[in-house]
Amino acid sequence: MGRVWHQNAVIYQIDPSRFYDSNGDGWGDIRGIIQKLDYIASLGVTALWLTPFYVSPRRDNGYDVEDHLSIDPRLGEPEDIDWLLAEARKRDMRVIIELVAQHTSDTHYWFQEARKNESGPYRDYYLWSKNGGPDEPRPMFPTVEPHIWRWDDEAQSHYRHLFYHHEPDLNLANPHVLHEVDRILEHWVEKGVAGFRIDAASHMVEQAGNGDKEKGYRFFNHVHALLERHRPELMLLGEVDVNVDEFTHYFGDGDRLTTLLNFWINKNIFLALARENAQPLVTALNELPLPPEHGGYCFWLRNHDELDMEDLSEEDFNFVMDKYAPDENMRIYGRGIRRRLAPMLDGDERHQALAHALLFSLPGTPAVRYGAETGMGDNLSQPERESVRSPMQWNDSPGAGFSTARPARFVSPLITDGPFGYQKINVEEQLAREDSLLHRIRRIAETWRTLPEVCYHHFHPFTVPQQSVFAARYQGEGYATLMFANLSAEPVVVELGELNLQEAVEILADGEYPPVSRELALNGHGYRWLRLR
């Protein structure tokens, strides 16, 4: 099978406003990312995923877009994105950006014009109702925005907003809106981006089909065909939090989305970690449909949003929430967790390294959130999802090496206190310590990049008697890779039965181990990868 780059990519997710401030104004920026590209490359990263850097009021971390074609002046100059793309190419890294087209900001020119004139050309860019309507689909942030229809005095009508009231939903069934989306995509492809992370992709289907899902899926056929004419290997990474049975509709015949962000596996990773039992994860993996030849899944531990646990059984949901979010302040929207990984695992570096070894053992593209490599914490004093959006902690100097501005000017507060304060958790400290989490994750990523067979098409999960151990086999041509991860803090000896690994070469491990025979030892939270001819 011929591989495409995104099936063997290591993605690093960056919030440009919170990564590194190059000009001392308290905001991270595009030039800051450029200055840190060598560091990013040293982690084994091959693709950057940038959260929105467009002109925006930034009431929703930039997902409330005011101008899809321009860079927010707080984040850089127009030419900075060209510079970033050129510098990334020099390091064999690609750049993925966000397509946010399910909604816009209410300050967008289109919406301002739509409000003014019921018969004007922009009115039908959005979804309106004189009398409002039922809250169907359900609001995305029910504890904050309980309704999806909002009265607008100027328009003398209600407009729909699945997300915040300042993010009106676009009418993607309108061919003029579709033309605008095409223009946005073509603009950034011509700049040289390697792909798009498509925000709220499943909601776009509903809007593009005007309730007819089959018609809505064809929106992605259109996008795929448009972009294939420009760059056939572009990544279309869809935010698709739907039932597993619907995944095939988003892939189509390899002519819709190329890659699905896999929320179902994300939930089951944490269920498996919480129960110290690999079976929920294996079961969930076995439920996934086979992606098209050049498609796949993207897996992650934490990103910029809440950790959504809905769709688990009530018993499993309560178990995970009680273990990882015991306090009400750690929970959000009645469905999720607003913590970073490190505090959920009590700051234990070995446990975090195990979680990343597990992530890289899964049959797809791994994505790592900035700061996860150092064990950055969260800031629960901040509202909603802002808790997991703290500035990057580079060193223990004032400002954490993020910015030379006064902290009062920072885009959001630093973590200054407790075990996750920047004085203790920072890149400089981790780089200096050979057994640090950063070095462990770097070794995991670098080893993974040497294993082109790790994808869903070559994935063969198998079970071992020890329920805490996740085991996977990837079969290449003439060789295989076996990966083991112990989800328990207790050491185990894995009984391999008829599987004889005496000829196997160990390519990654969390520590020193005796040679493998018909048994395989694993430390508590240990992991081992073996190469077998």
From TrEMBL:
<dbReference type="InterPro" id="IPR045857">
    <property type="entry name" value="O16G_dom_2"/>
</dbReference>
<dbReference type="InterPro" id="IPR006047">
    <property type="entry name" value="GH13_cat_dom"/>
</dbReference>
<feature type="domain" description="Glycosyl hydrolase family 13 catalytic">
    <location>
        <begin position="13"/>
        <end position="409"/>
    </location>
</feature>
<protein>
    <submittedName>
        <fullName>Alpha-amylase family protein</fullName>
    </submittedName>
</protein>
<dbReference type="InterPro" id="IPR017853">
    <property type="entry name" value="GH"/>
</dbReference>
<dbReference type="Pfam" id="PF00128">
    <property type="entry name" value="Alpha-amylase"/>
</dbReference>
